[in-house]
Every structure is written in structure tokens, then in C-alpha cells.
Amino acid sequence: MKDLAILGASGHGKVVAEVAELNGWCVTFFDDAFPDITQVAHWKVVGRSERLIANLHQFDGCMVAVGDNRIRLQKQSYLQSHGLECIVLIHPTATVSSYARLGKGTVVMSSAVINPFARVGECAIINTGATIDHDCILAESVHVSPGASLAGGVSVGALSWIGIGASVIQGVTIGPRAIVGAGAVVVTDIGADSKVVGVPAKEIG
Ligand SMILES: CC(C)(COP(=O)(O)OP(=O)(O)OC[C@H]1O[C@@H](n2cnc3c(N)ncnc32)[C@H](O)[C@@H]1OP(=O)(O)O)[C@@H](O)C(=O)NCCC(=O)NCCS
């Protein structure tokens, strides 16, 4: 069995750990936010990322399981700069086209679908039941929440968050660091750093 270090023992971390186990990995957790916890479910939590780096030879791969897009990307860059290899994890019930491309550190959760010629950058979360249609381009550290749908040819900038159940029509561009609220329907381009909600989605705050 191969050994996987997961940095981040939160709720999201537990879901990532199960996907890893289903892919034949033996999981050990590390956590920077709660370094004193020693166990999550049946998984050991061993310490902070510094400890992971000190013991990197014990692991065949690593994964950052932190929900915050910015922190996840920072941690992944930090681990990779110390020689750790971030892997891609795909739940067995997800459908990922052999013509799609996924960047290192990306996790695809159960029942998600990624269609041909979609390109998903490093460190993304394609969450439970999300759909990414043909020719979508997602930059690094994007989170597409459960049940959200991106139609064909949608472009999503780095660090953006698409909320649970949101829909984005074909060809729309979403700028970097944008937030699309739960259940929103995005029918026009969204600028960098915007936060939009509603049907059709409009900017707030
Ligand atoms: C969009 C979002 C980030 C806004 O959070 P926020 O900045 O804290 O905003 P607030 O809760 O202060 O709400 C501001 C206003 O927008 C409205 N609003 C917030 N989210 C909304 C949504 N998804 N749809 C419609 N209206 C929404 C609020 O009712 C409020 O309206 P008001 O000013 O008339 O009272 C958040 O509500 C959201 O939808 N998050 C996504 C959660 C998610 O997908 N989780 C999945 C995790 S895997």
C-alpha cells in the first residue's frame, strides 16, 4: 500500500481521506491549525506541516485538504518547494474524460463529472456531484462546490469559489478570486474579486 500525507484534518480532509482510501492509499493526517489533535475517525494526526517535511521520505504522495482556496494553494506551494509530490485524487464514482486535464493536488469528489477538453488547474476541489462541461478552463485553486454546474467553455479565474448548486451558462468568464453564491445562476461575465448571488446573479458587497 502507498502512503499518503494529507495536510488538513477538517471535514473536507475526511472526505479527501475516504477518496484516497478508495484509491488504495494509506492515509496519515497533518494539520497546522489544530496540531494538538492526534486522531480523526480512524486516521492518525501526526503534527504540523514542518513535521511532514521532516519525514517526507516516508510518504509516496501528499494532498492539501484545506477548504480556503488561498491557504490551500499556499500550503501546496510550500510542500512542493520541499520536494513533496502532490497527487490527483478521483473518487471511483466520478466521471473524468480521458480528454480532460487535471492539475496536481486536485480532488474530484463522488459523482462529479468532468467532460472532454476541460482543463482544471492545480489544487482544485471539484466537489460532490459538480459538473464541468467540455472546454471549461479552471485556473489554480478553484473550488466548485457540491452540485454546481459549469456549462461548456466557461473560464474560471484562480482562487474563485463557485457556491453549492450554482449554475454558470456556456462561455461565461469568471474573474480571479470571485465568489458565486449558493444557488446563483450566472449569465454574464463576472469580474475579478466580485461576489455575486441570485437569479440572474448580481454583485453584492
Ligand atoms: C455568497 C456568500 C459567500 C455571501 O456571504 P456573505 O458575504 O457573508 O453575505 P451575507 O450573508 O452577509 O449576505 C449579504 C446579502 O446577500 C444575501 N445572500 C447571501 N448569500 C446569498 C445567496 N446564495 N443567494 C441569494 N442571496 C444571498 C443575503 O440574504 C444578504 O441579503 P440582505 O443584504 O438583503 O440581507 C454566501 O451566502 C454563500 O452563498 N456561500 C456559498 C456557500 C457554499 O456554497 N458552501 C458550500 C461549501 S462546500
Give an account of the 3D structure.
By secondary structure, the chain is an alpha/beta fold. The chain has helices at residues 11-22, 49-54, 69-81; strands at residues 2-7, 25-30, 39-40, 43-44, 61-64, 89-90, 95-96, 101-102, 107-108, 113-114, 119-120, 125-126, 131-132, 137-138, 143-144, 149-150, 155-156, 161-162, 167-168, 173-174, 179-180, 185-186, 195-197, 202-203. The longest helix is centred in the middle third of the chain and has 13 residues, at 69-81. It is globular. The chain starts with a strand and ends with a strand. Residues 127, 145-146, 163-164, 179, 181-183, 195, 197-198, 204-205 line the site of coenzyme A.
Quantity of strands, as a count:
24
**Which secondary-structure class do the elements indicate?**
alpha/beta
Give me the side-by-side strand order of the main sheet: 6-9-12-15-18-21-23-24
Helix count equals 3
Shape: globular
Q: What's the average pLDDT?
A: 97
Mind telling me the C-alpha Rg?
17 Å
Bound molecules: coenzyme A
Give unreliable regions as ranges: none
Helix content: 10-25%
Hey, roughly how much beta strand do the residues contain? 25-35%
Largest sheet: 8 strands, mixed
Please describe the structure with a list of short key phrases separated by commas or semicolons.
single chain; 205 residues; alpha/beta; eight-stranded mixed beta sheet; six-stranded parallel beta sheet; 24 strands; 15% helix; globular; binds coenzyme A
